[in-house]
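Before going further, learn to read the protein records used in this course. The integers have meaning only within a learned vocabulary of local backbone shapes. To see the layout at work, look at the sequence and tokens printed below.
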Amino acid sequence: MSLQNRIINHFTDSIQTKQDALNELCELIELASQRLVAALLNDRKIFSCGNGRSAASAQLLSSALLNKFERDRPSLPAIALTMDTTTVTAIANDYGYEEVFSKPIRSLGQNGDVLVTYTDGNHSANIAKAIAVSHAKDISIIALTGRKSEAVSALLTERDLEIRVPSSSAIRTHEVHVLITHCLCDLIDHQLFDGMA
């Protein structure tokens, strides 16, 4: 296979996965945006977390909320639990890597906050622990997952929301997570600030 054919295959696979996700997930993305807006209107925070590539998605969400997405507007309270490397490595060293997200939630989380988790396939003990601690503090979960994310799905309750990308490929799942994150940011801005001068 030529290099250009490999490129064409990547684009084609990505487009197809995004089309499949659009057909299956549009309503769930809308609902997730409404839950995030409701939390923000009630003076609550949005936490986000993920590992590896998924950490980048978590940081993308918090960056767009704290700073801006595509328009100037007030900052919104969002915390990517992956950002503070000193704290993350200290917790991992002293208590174990499975505590790196749950420990900050235990300290900073409040009833009514929302935790957005990202995983593109593999089960992670630190995300499982973050979900358990969030449930104990009455923090709801929006889980962005993929087809291979059964372990995370099994931890969710009826109060939570799962947006599961219809793909077994970690790369394609991650690409759609980024697009969903952009949709969420746009929908939040639209619902909160469309009347803003």
Notes: The chain has a mean pLDDT of 95. Residues 3-41 form the longest helix (39 residues).
